[in-house]
Design brief:
With 339 residues, the chain is of the alpha/beta class. It starts with a strand and ends with a helix. α1 (11-23) crosses α7 and α4 (95-115) runs parallel beside α5. It has helices at 11-23, 63-72, 87-92, 95-115, 152-171, 193-202, 222-235, 252-262, 288-294, 302-315, 317-325, 327-336; strands spanning 2-6, 28-33, 53-57, 77-80, 119-125, 175-180, 183-184, 207-210, 216-218, 220-221, 240-244, 249-251, 270-273. It binds nicotinamide-adenine-dinucleotide and thymidine-5'-diphosphate (TYD).
Length: 339
């Protein structure tokens, strides 16, 4: 099968590219990525060695580029990871979130309608459900939980989800949606909590914790998210939403302390800073549906996954420094300017 992976130069998309190359060598992966600040070609340097991998630089919201790609390749599946993904940036400047996350999704689905595909899979987030109260540990997001967004980021993801469901109902487009909790693991851009803490702690710099660090996130090792998406896009039912999460809720302050402990750094580095406006209190996923229907379960426990993640960053300081300094744009020019 020919599979377009959009946003494959980012955190989860790149992990998914490697997951597919390893587990489905019979398929061809075409990565379409705009290479925004969050996309890094260095991340895909090992994928470039595979004959069944192709990288295309382009914007999912650019109809000409997307249609052109569909004309060149006979596409079976589209998995859409491409997005502006950082809540704090969406608070600063929401517009690009609407362009990429909503309009980009529409352009991809229009191409799917025009050229025909077997499956369009939308990678969404548990953030579309809003948040849960900290004191109600008995409550979880199910696929029936109403959409109730807090940030421009989650609003743009929810809008895209509704559009995906509308294209299924109105045009019979064969779609599926996954809504996953917070991921962590290799190639995570150091603006998000865990890699930011790691990169700051490397240099013995203070680590900023919003508010009192009481907000709770439900953490899943990125490879477990990839295996869930792989199962859904191949075997999940059309028109369905699947929640993905591993029942691993932790308060931010506990996550930060765990990272500091693994890195042998003092908790004195913790600096409590002004809270994020509209900050969601607690996310918690009920993954019963994907587990019952598709037999999905996560493989990596948090204690193991977080150690592996810190070790990966220790062994890949160059990647981190490249991302931080913007060197990857030079890398891109060097590799692609003459093609
Ligand atoms: P990321 O920010 O690390 O990567 C996004 C990638 O998309 C980058 O490579 C970027 O260059 C690319 N991109 C951005 N705009 C584009 C455009 N217009 N056209 C083509 N490519 C574009 O994001 P991530 O954390 O890997 O998240 C991937 C997807 O998973 C997103 O849709 C996000 O909403 C969803 N998600 C993320 C998490 C998480 O914890 N990170 C959890 C659940 C769902
Ligand atoms: P983040 O990684 O931005 O993911 P999301 O907001 O999409 O869940 O943040 C995870 C949690 O960590 C969230 O509650 C905000 C908090 N946070 C901090 O306390 N300090 C930080 O510097 C960042 C980036 C996040």
């Amino acid at each position: 099968m020919n599979i377009i992976v959009t946003g494959g130069a980012g955190f989860i998309g790149s992990n998914f590219v490697y997951y597919e190359l390893k587990n489905h060598p019979e398929d061809r992966i075409i990565c379409l990525d705009k290479l925004t600040y969050a996309g890094n070609l260095e991340t895909l340097k090992d994928a470039m060695k595979y004959d069944n991998f192709r990288f295309v630089k382009g914007d999912i919201a650019d109809r000409e580029t997307v249609y052109g790609l569909f004309e060149e390749e006979k596409i079976d599946i589209v998995v859409n990871f491409a997005a502006e993904s950082h809540v704090d940036r969406s608070i600063e400047d929401p517009e690009i979130f609407i362009k990429t996350n909503v309009l980009g999704t529409q352009v991809l689905m229009d191409a799917c309608r025009k050229y025909g595909i077997k499956r369009y899979h939308q990678v969404s987030t548990d953030e579309v459900y809003g948040d849960l109260p900290l004191e109600r540990k008995d409550l979880f997001f199910t696929e029936e939980t109403p959409i109730h967004t807090s940030s421009p980021y989650s609003a743009s993801k929810a809008a895209a989800d509704l559009l995906v469901l509308a294209y299924h109902r109105t045009f019979k487009l064969p779609v599926s949606i996954s809504r996953c909790s917070n991921n962590y693991g290799p190639y995570h851009f150091p603006e998000k909590l865990i890699p930011l803490m790691i990169s700051r702690a490397f240099e013995n710099k203070s680590v900023p914790v919003y508010g009192k660090g009481e907000n709770v996130r439900d953490w899943l090792y990125v490879e477990d998210h990839c295996s869930a998406i792989d199962m859904i896009m191949r075997n999940g039912r059309e028109g369905e939403i699947y929640n993905v999460g591993g029942h691993n809720e932790r308060a931010n302050i506990d996550v930060v302390k765990t990272v500091l402990r693994i890195m042998d750094r003092s908790e004195d580095l913790i600096e409590f800073v002004t809270d994020r406006p509209g900050h969601d209190r607690r996310y918690a996923i009920d993954p019963t549906k994907i587990s019952n229907e598709l037999g999905w379960t996560p493989n990596t426990a948090f204690d193991e996954g977080i150690k592996k993640t810190v070790e990966w960053y220790m062994e890949n300081r160059e990647w981190l420094n490249g991302v931080l300094s913007g060197d990857y744009m030079e890398y891109y020019d060097k590799m692609y300017s003459n093609r």
